[in-house]
Design goal:
Blueprint lengths: L2 E3 L4 E7 L3 H15 L4 E8 L5 H17 L4 E4 L3 H10 L6 E3 L2 H10 L2
Parallel strand pairs: 2-3, 3-4, 4-5
Antiparallel strand pairs: 1-2
Length: about 110
């Protein structure tokens, strides 16, 4: 199940490469626009590349979750290839990261 409501306040997205990535992140953005009480954990463990469209959608999700809703967005399971994209673009400085899903969920639950 790629996108699931993990708890009342946490949405978990287990992302995959395109075209699934685009569909899933659009669904997450829509859910967060409708429900402003959601923190989001995106697992990128199965993502081997990010194109400019994917990056734009992740940034839109960040704007919706963190800026509009005042909630938290955390990314986890980032592969070496995808981490390189974050480093080159400087996006490693604006996102919060966790090693894996369990540690990401724990950090979202503990810090509320």
């Amino acid at each position: 199940m790629p996108v699931q409501q993990w708890s009342d306040t946490v949405l978990l997205g287990e992302m995959a490469d395109d075209p699934q990535f685009s569909e899933d992140i659009s669904a997450i953005i829509e859910q967060c626009s409708e429900n402003s009480n959601l923190d989001v954990l995106l697992s990128l463990a199965d993502v081997s590349f990010l194109n400019s469209s994917n990056i734009a959608k992740v940034l839109k999700l960040r704007k919706t979750v963190q800026i509009s809703n005042q909630r938290r967005l955390k990314l986890c399971g980032v592969s070496t290839q995808v981490w390189g994209v974050f480093l080159v673009t400087g996006l490693d400085r604006i996102f919060d990261f966790a090693d894996d899903i369990p540690s990401g969920l724990a950090s979202l639950q503990l810090s509320r």
